[in-house]
Amino acid sequence: MTAIRLATDEDLPRVARLFGEAFIDDEMLRWPFPTDATIEDLTTLFAILLDVYGTLDAVWVTDDLAGAAVWLPPTEAERFLEIEGPTRELIRPLTDDGGARYDVFWDWLGGHLPDEPCWFLDIVAVDATARGGGLGRRLIEHGLARADADGLPAFLETSRSDNIALYERFGFRVVDELAAPRNGPAIWFLRADPPSRA
Question: Is 57 left (phi over 0), alpha (psi -120 to 50) or beta?
Answer without folding.
Answer: left
